[in-house]
Amino acid sequence: MSATSQRGVEPTVETALETAMTDLYAKSRAAEFGLGSAQFVAILEDVAAKHAHATDLYSRLHVEDLVLARACAAGNEHAWEVFLLRFREKLYDVARQITREHSAGRELADSVYADLFGTRTREGDRISKLTSYSGRGSLDGWLRTVLAQEYVNTYRKQRRLVSLDEEEEEGAQFAAPSNDSPVPADSRLEKAVDEALRSVSAEDRFVLASYFLDGRTLAQIAKALSVHESTISRKVEKLTKVIRKQILKSLARQGMSRRQAEEALAADVRDLAVDIRASLAQDSLQPPFSEERAKAGEGGS
Amino acid sequence: MDQIAKLVSGRLKAQSAGPHPGPDLLAAFAENALQNEEREKLLEHVGACSDCRQILYLALPESAEAQRILSLKGNRRPALALRWGALVASLTILAVVLTTRYQSHGPAMQKAISPPAQIAAEKVPAEMDQMRAQPPERMNEVPSKPRALPEAKPMTAKPQANLNFDDSDQVRVSALPLPILDQNKDQKKDLPVRGLPLNGRNVTELNALTVSGAQPASPPQPVGGRDKEKNAIGTTSSSVGMFAKESTVGGNLGGIVSDPSGAVVADAKVTVIGPIGTQTVTSDPEGKFAFGRLAPGFYAIKAEASGFKSTEMKQVAVLDDRTSALRLTLDVGNASETVEVSAAAPAVNAATTNAATALESSTGLAGGQAQAEAKLSRKKATAANSRQREAGLGLGAGVSTLLWTLSPAGAVQHSGDSGKTWQVVSVATGATFRALSAVGANIWVGGRAGAVYRSTDSGQTWVKVVPVAGGKKLDQDIVRLDFSGPLSGTINTANGEVWATSDGGQTWLRK
């Protein structure tokens, strides 16, 4: 390709980009909230920096929601009016739906609303949680997730402070002495289960954890994965068979006979050296979302 | 299974999850807005992190599940139906052969095991008690008489008892003495000649009707009755009819072609276009036409004749073992013009089993009683359709359940087998949908940037709908569609707008 034609191509690409940006700017209604095109481009660049690995990012962004969130974070009154009109009632409804209790729902929604408005300051500027919204999903969905996150955080905090009466009611005071050194079951079985779990896809592990560990219904899992309930039903059935087969294979590879493997599978699961305490400790090592939120406010999500 | 569940749960608990994703990614995941790589990463985390799973499930909106709607079966696979039909036919033949063999054995064998008689005994124990109480010498009289072997009939079964209708409308069942069978045989031979009224229809007329490919292999003959003519009919429907019904696959479509004055149009070319191709017949001098053994589904039917505008009727339902009767009216004009007629529900004949009988009832409009019946059935077409729907709920006769949903990628899918398999329905190239509403054959789908499509024929054809209210076009992402009927419904957009229509999308009101 000659140098002349290369020079001819570049302006075309630039023009196409400009056109795309202009379209996005118009679609976002940024002008309505007093955001100029330069500010709009800055917002997009900020989002692109956070999600550099995402392809085809701009066309998938909820730009209108993104601009509204950023305008609110910047303290634009009109943006707040629009935000409250669209989401105020919804925020309370979703909070009630999550907590399943009226007053707790209101408390949760108020707490999140305060975070959205921004109660903490940095160098004199309010830090609004809305800054961390990047438009990957809808603002509605993001608000739901933030409410759910806040609820899980609050619940975890409250669980750490259990009154002695409650503890007694739960039987903790009279709990049987825990066996610190559980009878180690055949470690080969644990290894086989781990191998079997590794052999299935991430989505399958999610389905298994949701169904067996969390006790979610098929309908809930189906909704989370945007598939039909019957698909999940079939998947659970198939996965159980596959995992059983994999475990037996793995045990056979480790030198067990078929009969021994079958017996090992039928062993009392309580004998398995699953260190739940260690697992919980590992979980608690994760920073709670509220701490993460602080980091997010400082520029990371 | 329980043990595997416990083992898996134990090991899943022990997994480490890594850093938590932000609400942005979780929300995008829940809305299916993540691309493959990101989605995999997130699934990897949420599969191991119970907190994030809890957040994910708590944040899910309480949306309506995939809508289960009823629509007339449109996508039932004819090949599958044929396979089942073949199986049923084989079983029927086997049953007939076995019954025939039992009858040819001695009285001891007949007394020892006779499955049909046992069934009768279970249904009417008092009558069978009476039979058992008969003196043994009378029972022995039967085999002493000369008897002829019954004719082998591959598709019919002989009843082992008479149904006697007395004046009190009670049905009595009595054992069938063998000589009576011979009499019945004679009666059967006479039946078509005498033009025995069959449920108000004339059998002689019926036999005269020629239908291409619609003649059944073995028209059921009334057998087993001797006291009254209706007695014979009752017996036929009780056993023979049942077998014949099981061996029939498909429905019939017939009718009459007429001009606006009501005069019949002969030699009109009538074409039926359906899921498995097209068929063409020509109307007879009386304007009648008929298609037999059509696979159940929706058909378009077109009538053409020289000197008339062609008429096309879409969405004509053909049901299993039913006959749809139509009257196609051709307007005078140029043949190149086509008049499209809205699919008025055809009169569906509820009488089943015999294709010839069914066709007679729908197309034999010359016969006085049949004509009156056809008119009546046309008037009651709506009621018949609702009955079919009701029947579909419990019996599965001619109605199937169509499920509609959207795939994770935003494609429209439907399932005709209660969600076991899903077929992608092509709506528009490159379109991604996020909301769906289905009422009967009316399907609405909505997606990004105000894309709304509607189908009125269970997804066979789609039309783009552009909602405009007060000079403003709907250009927001659609998050929800709610249609309570074929005409009225609402669209919810991502920015909280609600667009409503009450005329099937012709006009819109923005709220």
Task: Explain the layout of strands and helices.
The complex is a heterodimer of chains A (301) and B (511).
Chain A: H1 3-28, H2 37-50, H3 57-60, H4 63-73, H5 77-99, H6 102-117, E1 121-122, E2 125-126, H7 139-160, H8 164-169, H9 187-199, H10 202-213, H11 218-225, H12 229-253, H13 258-265, H14 276-285, H15 289-297
Antiparallel strand pairs in A: 1-2
Chain B: H1 2-13, H2 23-30, H3 36-48, H4 50-59, E1 67-72, H5 78-104, H6 107-112, H7 115-123, H8 125-132, H9 136-144, E2 161-165, E3 171-175, H10 178-194, E4 197-198, E5 201-202, H11 203-208, H12 229-247, E6 251-258, E7 269-274, E8 277-282, E9 288-294, E10 297-304, E11 310-318, E12 323-329, E13 338-341, E14 347-349, H13 355-363, H14 368-379, H15 381-394, E15 399-406, E16 412-415, E17 423-425, E18 433-439, E19 442-447, E20 452-455, E21 463-465, E22 468-469, E23 472-473, E24 478-483, E25 489-493, E26 498-501, E27 509-510
Helix pairs in contact in B: 3-4, 7-8, 13-14
Task: Record keyword descriptors for this entry.
heterodimer; A: 301 residues; mainly alpha; Arc Repressor Mutant, subunit A; 2 domains; two-stranded antiparallel sheet; 15 helices; 1% strand; extended; disordered N terminus; disordered C terminus; B: 511 residues; alpha+beta; Immunoglobulin-like; 4 domains; five-stranded mixed β-sheet; four-stranded antiparallel β-sheet; 27 strands; flat
